[in-house]
Structures are given as C-alpha cells and as structure tokens.
Amino acid sequence: MRAAPEPPGDVFARHRIDAVRPGALERIARRLRADGLVTFTGVVSRTDVLTLASRIMTVTGHRDSDSDGLTTIRDTRHHAHRAGFAGLGNGALEPHTDRSGNPCPPRLMMLVCGQEADVGGECVLVDGRAVHAGLTTVSREAVTAFSQPRTAYFGAGDGHPSQVFTVHADHHVALRLRQDGLARFSPTVQPYLPQLRAAITRHQVLLPVAPGEGYLLDNRRWLHARTAFTGERLCWRALGQPRFPMPEGFVPEPVAAAAPALAGR
After folding, report:
1. For residue range 135-192, what is the model confidence (pLDDT) as tens digits?
2. Mean per-residue pLDDT of the chain
3. Considering its fold, how many domains does the chain have in total?
4. What is the pLDDT of residue 76?
5. What are phi and psi of 173, to 5 degrees?
6. Are residues 103 and 134 in the same domain?
7. 45: Cβ–Cβ under 8 A, 6 or more apart, which residues?
C-alpha cells in the first residue's frame, strides 16, 4: 500500500534552518550532507538572496542568469514553446536536475519566492535517494541499466552524454536527469523509463513557498519541478559550487543501512 504523502508544512518545517543565526553555515552544511535539502524563510529581496547564496556557494552564471549570477524565474511570455526554456513560461515542469547537459552541473541550487502565482506554481521536490531505493526494490535491472555510462544524452547539440545514476568509487551515487525534448535515452534503458517515472511520481512532495521562503538542495541528489500557474509568479534562483566539502552524491539506502556513519560525512 502506498503511504500517504507527507504534508507540505511538515516537509518545510523538518528541513528548515534559520539562515541568519550564528553558526547557520555549519548547520546548512551538515543538513546538506545528510539530507541534501534545506528550507528557510526571511529572504525578502533579491539582495538578500544573493547575500545568502554567496555565503553558501560560489555563484555560477549561465545562459539565463543576470549580471549578478542570479536567474529571474518568471513567465516572459516569449520562451514557453522553446526547447530548454520552459522554466521561463508558466507551464508545468517535469522533475529534473539543473544544467544536466553540462559536463559538470552545479552542485547546489537555491530557489526563493519573490511573488506567488495567482493559482498554482507550487514547487515539487523528489528525493533521488528514495527514487533509487524504490527502483531497486522494483527492478535491480533498471537501476543497473540507468547506471551504465553514456546511456543518456542531455541537452541540444552542445549537450553531454551521461547516465541517470553515476556510481562513484566510494559507492556514493550522483543523479542527473531531464525529461523534456532535450533528453534522449539509449535503447538499452528505454524499456525501464516507465518504471523510473513511476518511482519519481511516488516520491513527489508538493512544497508551496510564500514570498521570502525558499529552499536549497543538492543538485546531484534532488529533482525539482513546478506546477503550472497563472499570474505574475516571480522567483530567484542561484546555482553554484558549495563553499564547504560535500560527498559526491548520496549513499544508497542498502549501503546506508550497513554503514550509517557515511551519510553524515
């Protein structure tokens, strides 16, 4: 029987850290190493977002970012039907990791709400560790297939061949995924795509965020998405590399059960 989804308020409260209290950076680093997710409140302006992000990461600019490195996420009314630009429209986004078509995607992603939508626009989060565990339970063959090198290609002509799960020498697993028109999968993994998508759906968590609220996640563990919306929804996003050491990806659940100390390193 499928468990009832965790209430959004519980998810936000369980991962919340007061980002302005002394010692916040150390608590954020510990939480990211353990859970890959932090939520926070009180970040009410673009300046606040950049200040907080700069304490946590080296902010990395990219195609859609502004001169300060932050990306303004809103419906531009010009990008919705262009491949790879859906985030700048008002439609729903499928769960994905950011910059999956880059050889080395940013490790951290921060999103802060500046203005709520009139209707919809809720954030959707999916723990990749739970997806990996759930998929392993259903089909170890699927996990093995999605871990084979170069079984996926993410991005346009300048994209990157990779795989959904990258297994490192220390048994940590890093996640990379997109599910739009710029994702292509080899014939060896295509039969398992329905199982992967079902596992992602099972572990989705709806996370409404009000103005001044946001989240910070490990971009190699968590998938994020968005529901469709109407209105003038506005968010700011920061991408970058952490200013503190983090293990590469997450410890799969069977390994974590045998060696729980690894998860906190």
Report:
1. 999 999 999 999 999 999 999 988 999 999 999 999 999 999 999 999 999 999 999 9
2. 91
3. 2
4. 87
5. -120, 130
6. no
7. none
Instruction: Give dist(CA 83, CA 155) in Å, integer.
Output: 9
Q: How far apart are CA 142 and CA 75, in angstroms?
A: 36
Task: State the amino acid at position 233 in one-letter form.
Answer: R
What 3-state class would DSSP assign to 21?
coil
Nearest to 30 by CA among 253, 242, 220: 242
Residue 75 near residue 87, CB atoms below 8 Å: no
Q: Are residues 93 and 136 in the same domain?
A: no
Domain region containing 31: 7-119+206-220+231-242
In a domain, 151, yes or no: yes
pLDDT tens per residue, range 71-105 = 999 998 876 566 667 888 999 999 999 999 999 99
Closest CA to 203 of 123, 97, 93, 125: 125
Retrieve residue 206's tokens: 């709806």
For the entire predicted model, the pTM comes to 0.90
pLDDT at 130 over 90: yes
For residue 88, the model assigns a pLDDT of 81
Q: Which token pair is 171?
A: 């048994």
Same domain, 105 and 22: yes
Residue 232's Cα: distance from chain center in Å?
Answer: 23
Is residue 111 scored above 50 in pLDDT?
A: yes
Residues 13 and 72 both lie in one domain: yes
Q: Is residue 76 part of a domain?
A: yes
Q: Identify the helix (H) or strand (E) that includes residue 23.
A: none
